[in-house]
């Protein structure tokens, strides 16, 4: 389960790549560590139309859970055949979640630190911008912590997962995020009927993803030990 990612590309570059017309994110600083329930930038169809106009807006990471499930927000969605998730699979509730990298914990503790390494994945060492295939909703309840609740309504999002490719599988063998990397994929995800868009719920090709950092740090920045220094 992916519960940590980074978005460090500047706002202008995000808007240019995803062809955003309207921006509602204010001063967007780099976010080298995005955790569940954090506000983060999301690209969606402007208003309720799917004519190609897009907007960049802040949302909180974590969708409303199924009625009979756990009470915690859901960050990753795998079972798109579930009646609960089908509600938000129409184009007006799909979104692109900009990212530069994502992380999973190593399955076994590091012999030196006795802690599980945080393993960061990206398209390459330069961490070019891509998007998770996301969905969004309006949530009317409280978010934040129990001691400091933030009253709703809130705009919230999650992103789809799929089977891991051979790069992610040794670290996390259950799933990986659905990653989109081309203008055609962005357009299909935001505008196409589900029968067409669902084909995008597949692993990224092995050659299109790399381990770029590994260590104790929970933010993807130069302070993290480079994967090459840990290669065996």
- What topology, given as strand order, has the largest sheet? 3-1-8-9-16
**Low-confidence spans: pLDDT under 50, at least 5 residues?**
223-232
The residue fraction in helices comes out at 10-25%
Question: What integer is the average pLDDT?
Answer: 91
Secondary-structure-based class equals: mainly beta
Number of DSSP-assigned strands: 16
Counted by DSSP, the helix tally is 4
Shape: globular
- The sequence of SSEs as H and E is EHEEEEEHEEEEEEEEEHHE
Describe the largest sheet: 5 strands, antiparallel
Q: Strand-residue fraction?
A: 35-45%
User: How far is the N terminus from the C terminus?
Assistant: 26 Å
Topology:
Elements: E1 5-7, H1 11-17, E2 22-24, E3 31-34, E4 39-45, E5 54-61, E6 76-77, H2 83-86, E7 94-99, E8 101-109, E9 116-122, E10 130-139, E11 143-144, E12 149-150, E13 154-162, E14 176-177, E15 179-180, H3 183-191, H4 194-197, E16 210-215
Parallel strand pairs: 2-5, 5-13, 6-13
Antiparallel strand pairs: 1-3, 1-8, 4-5, 4-7, 7-10, 8-9, 9-16, 10-13, 10-15, 11-12, 13-14
Structure report:
A hairpin with an 8-residue loop joins strand 4 and strand 5. The protein contains 4 helices and 16 strands. Strands 3-1-8-9-16 form a 5-stranded antiparallel sheet, with no helix packed on it. A 5-stranded mixed beta barrel has the order 4-5-13-10-7. With 232 residues, the chain is mainly β. Helices cover 10% and strands 35% of the residues. The relative contact order is 0.19. The C terminus is likely disordered. The longest helix is centred in the last third of the chain and has 9 residues.
């Amino acid at each position: 389960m992916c519960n940590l990612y980074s978005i460090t590309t500047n706002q202008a570059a995000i808007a240019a790549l995803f062809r955003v017309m309207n921006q509602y994110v204010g001063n967007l600083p780099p976010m080298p560590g995005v955790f569940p329930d954090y506000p983060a930038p999301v690209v969606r169809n402007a208003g309720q139309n799917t004519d190609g106009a897009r907007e960049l807006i802040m949302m909180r990471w974590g969708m409303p859970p199924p009625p009979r499930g756990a009470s915690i927000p859901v960050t990753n969605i795998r079972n798109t055949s579930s009646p609960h998730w089908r509600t938000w699979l129409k184009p007006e509730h799909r979104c692109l979640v900009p990212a530069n990298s994502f992380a999973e914990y190593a399955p076994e503790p590091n012999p030196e630190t006795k802690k599980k390494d945080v393993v960061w994945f990206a398209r390459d060492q330069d961490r070019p911008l891509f998007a998770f295939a996301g969905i969004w909703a309006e949530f009317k309840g409280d978010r934040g912590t129990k001691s400091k609740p933030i009253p709703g309504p809130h705009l919230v999002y999650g992103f789809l997962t799929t089977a891991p490719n051979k790069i992610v599988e040794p670290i996390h063998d259950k799933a990986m995020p659905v990653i989109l990397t081309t203008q055609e994929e962005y357009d299909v995800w935001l505008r196409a009927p589900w029968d067409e868009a669902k084909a995008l719920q597949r692993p990224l090709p092995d050659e299109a993803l790399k381990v770029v950092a590994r260590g104790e740090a929970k933010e993807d920045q130069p302070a993290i030990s480079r994967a090459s220094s840990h290669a065996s």
